[in-house]
Amino acid sequence: MCFILHSLLAVLSGLLLSTIFPCANMSLIAFIAMVPLLLAIRGQSIPKVFVLGLITGIVFFGILLFWIAGIRLYQVDQWLLVIGWMVATIACALFIGVFAMGVCIWKTRASLFAPAIIWTALEFIRSHFPLGGFPWGILGYSQYQNLVLIQIAEWTGVFGVSFLLMLINTMIAGIISRTSGSWSGTGITVTLIIICLVWGNIKLGENLASGKPLKVAVIQTNIGIDQSWEWETSRERILLMLNRLTVKAAKADPSLIIWTETAILSSPATSPWIKKKLLSITTQLNSYLLVGAPHMIEGNYYNSAFLISNNGQIINRYDKIHLVPFGEMIPGEELFPLLRKTFPQAGIYSHGKEYTVFNEPGRFCTLICYEGIFGDLTRRFVKKGAEFIVNISNDAWTRTKASYYQHVSMDVFRAVENRRYFIRAGNTGISAIINPNGKIEHLVDVGREGIIISHIFLNKHLTFYSQRGDMFAYLCLVITIMGGKWGRGKWEIGRCPHFPPFSRYFI
User: Fold this and answer.
1) What are the catalytic residues?
2) For residue 283, how many other CB atoms are within 10 A of its CB?
3) pLDDT tens per residue across span 451-467
């Protein structure tokens, strides 16, 4: 009976976690979402603790990632997508199961910080492994609209925000169940919160318009995935639409006009027809044009971005580095050729190798779709000299508005981490301009045709995160490993000791 009640608490945590991300956007619940699970795992055996964490994870990720089951992909069976949703849900849920075990096993005098450190370490691992990482549902991303709190990301990345949220959850759980002990742990947590809030208010009060100004234009065409695949019959109409919107944007005399990922489905470097069409468009402009298109060279197929001058000349090209597993390529296909038969519709793209920074009309990098959710990848471009960040995307494959906004919520952190303007061009949405403090200044919503024209400001300064990356998360990982090593042998095999009152979590 007790385990059933504990399981209900675990389910409650999963439900609460699922409400803190778009489109529910009940972000304040993130401060209490993990409290039921932290209370539920007290005094349980290690197998039961793992199961309770797994229950929370399955409920949470099952709801958060449900959009995977509804993806629209050309000639892909729906059952395969449902299986993909189930596999992704279980894989992510395992990390919460391991988190619950870690909290149970790791006992130190500073154990107020144990849940936050372990959670942060596991989020960091999930963001990098397996298959290149899947950072969807990172706790910190829920606060993308809480601009005061997220300013610490220029030091810690998104993981620092996750750490703070988990620390608050632990403190609240301790207050609920405490029987005796000091308030020092509560004092430490409140002090950290105050420091972060003061820092956030200071940063929000700074002048963002201190660098060189640059006018940019973003084109959102709202071309559905079915139209994109019917390229032979619709390419002329799509280019006419792009031409119409581009000429309209050009009247504002921007320095850079941005099209979306795979806005055209033939390479401007190899297709004479595309070259001719782009020349007829660019000669009407007094600006550079950034275009997303596939590209083949030396037998390798790339998802690329081309910077084109107003005389139709290709100035430079970026080839996407971080590809989507089972979407743009199949991991391990060389070792297991049968995977291609299982996923015949998966792309055959190759990984790009260069962190390309375009030099005109200002120094900038171009992240392609999925790449924008990876902080460490983004900051490598900034470290190479990018003064603003562009992300061209095509999310037309998804049917849920929530997935669009979940995607954009991660881009907000890339702006704050590097203190760069972040420009997003989405085919069917969401297109946006995000300032260096994470504020979304302009937005074209899902399923609309539109243009964004705005001034941005260039920035050469490198933040701590731009220079050092996820040092905070690495530190949490090292402490977690050391804590786990110290914790071994202290408990009976297969059992977690009876959890002390939460008051003992406080130093």
Assistant:
1) 261, 320, 369
2) 10
3) 999 999 999 999 999 99
